[in-house]
Amino acid sequence: MLFAAHSGVRYLVLLVGLIAFGYAVYGAATRKPYDRAMLGLARAFAGLTHLQILLGVAVIFTGRFYPALIGHIVCMVLAAVVATIVPAVMRKRQPAERSYTPHAVAVLVALTLMVMGIMAIGRGPFSSTMGG
Q1: Which of 85, 100, 82 shows the shortest CA–CA distance to 29?
Q2: How many angstroms separate the CA atoms of 70 and 60, rounded?
Q3: Which range marks the domain in which residue 33 is found?
Q4: Cβ count within 10 A of residue 1
Q5: Torsion-angle region of residue 88: left (phi > 0), alpha (psi -120 to 50) or beta?
Q6: Domain for residue 132, yes or no?
Q7: For the whole model, what pTM was predicted?
Q8: How buried is 116 (Cβ within 10 angstroms: 0-12 exposed, 13-18 middle, 19+ buried)?
Q9: Phi, psi angle pair for 66, to nearest 5°
């Protein structure tokens, strides 16, 4: 059950990441004033990433460990760190100092690390993992 949850939540993480990236790129391209929606999307992406890490740790504790997971774990932890830093920094900045570009870069880097982490275990980001 934990493995199925971990595998399924991945789609939600990727979807929210793509939405956050698109919103950040749109905001930066249109020079739209920074708004709370960007911070909310970034926090949602980071939170879902943390949930995914917790589910992954729980899966490991059920005995599903093999050497290729080391690359997967490293990439995913780095992705979670990247996804967390920018919303934390932007929240502490004065509203006039906040911008969309750091969000776009951080989400893109985090998503890239996630895809690399998924590929490290021999799967594609959208391939089915049920039964294995």
Answers
A1: 100
A2: 11
A3: 2-120
A4: 8
A5: alpha
A6: no
A7: 0.88
A8: middle
A9: -150, 160
